[in-house]
Amino acid sequence: MSESLLLPYRAMARNNGWANHRLLGACQGLDQAEFTAPRSGFFPSLRATLNHILIVDHFYIDAMEGGRLGPAAWADREPCATPAALQAAQSAMDRRLIALVDGLAPGDLSRIVTVHRGPRDQKERLDRLLLHLFQHQIHHRGQAHAMLSGTAIAPPQLDEFFPAEEAPLRAGDFAALGWDEAERWPPRG
Length: 189
Description:
Blueprint: H1 7-27, H2 32-36, H3 46-64, H4 83-102, E1 112-116, E2 121-125, H5 126-148, H6 167-177, H7 181-184
Antiparallel strand pairs: 1-2
Helix pairs in contact: 1-4, 1-5, 3-4, 3-5
């Protein structure tokens, strides 16, 4: 199998980390009352929604790493009380996901992962779990983005494409993350 099969997963893992960085960075401007205020969404606040993303990441990344965390991931539904704590924890989780994906060989995508769900285990292909996790993140980040629009903080651009005139913004984010554009989207060839 070709190494190029891994490029989309590696790009998605980095885009995921970048979008989390931008969204949680914007949340740093919220006071605690705004962060916990009731809002319309699947979860009742920005804090609850963003903690849910973190918890589910922990659940699935642990399984993909061969761990047995399982339902213990939900022991504390909101482990991070502040935007700063949440950003630090999510950044660590994003680095774990990137390291996991970067360490894959093409044949690993079809590897069967055991996801411990308490009384039963789920068996799933790694590529499908990765796609599910990326979709889950996008889904709930979109909800948090909409919630943020109801605050005094403008929701950040989460699209992965910036026009050339906004390259300094992207470069600043990437520098904060320790990345560069070529690492996020490796050159063709």
